[in-house]
């Protein structure tokens, strides 16, 4: 008999987390071996449990989904990670795949697509719903740097989000174990690339693109 697919779920909405858990545990070939309500907890439990598949919400406290994928891939490069998000956050799709996510699923589609998505990424294949695949195809066709967000590296995007949320350079530096000077360098690059003037502009930019 084949062993069960061990799954970890990370989502900061408890009701959504329990709903996902229920869907998975109704499948005879899967089991949920851990859950997390924020990015920091997700990283800890994924590294401890070493599941077969991880499902990570894109928007979580402490570390967002992109940060979780980025950090986990350094330790568990072969772990299939499914990104879970709201439909309006599709600007994250391309970046999530770029940094190592194996699939992407919207919350409105979990009831019909989640099980298939888990099985597919567990088998080593990508899972991209048709509408999401179209987003990526369009982005590739347009070429890089057609959207302001594409001007930023993954780390710059992460720093931008934290600045937009009101965190200081010191707080951001502590989160990434970097120097305050390094974070300020990222901040200056962000301002220059996006032609912004200050942190208030960064916040407005992040809100306009629904990054926060």
Automatic annotation (TrEMBL):
One of its GO terms (biological process) is regulation of DNA-templated transcription. CDD domains: LuxR_C_like (cd06170), REC_NarL-like (cd17535). The modification 4-aspartylphosphate is found at residue 57. Residues 6-122 form the Response regulatory domain. SMART domains: HTH_LUXR, REC. It comes from the Bacteria. GO terms for molecular function: DNA binding. Keywords: DNA-binding, Phosphoprotein. Residues 145-210 form the HTH luxR-type domain. The keyword Phosphoprotein applies. InterPro entries: CheY-like_superfamily (IPR011006), NreC/VraR/RcsB-like_REC (IPR058245), Sig_transdc_resp-reg_C-effctor (IPR016032), Sig_transdc_resp-reg_receiver (IPR001789), Tscrpt_reg_LuxR_C (IPR000792), WalR-like (IPR039420). PANTHER family: TWO-COMPONENT RESPONSE REGULATOR (PTHR43214). This is Two component transcriptional regulator, LuxR family. It comes from Desulfonauticus submarinus.
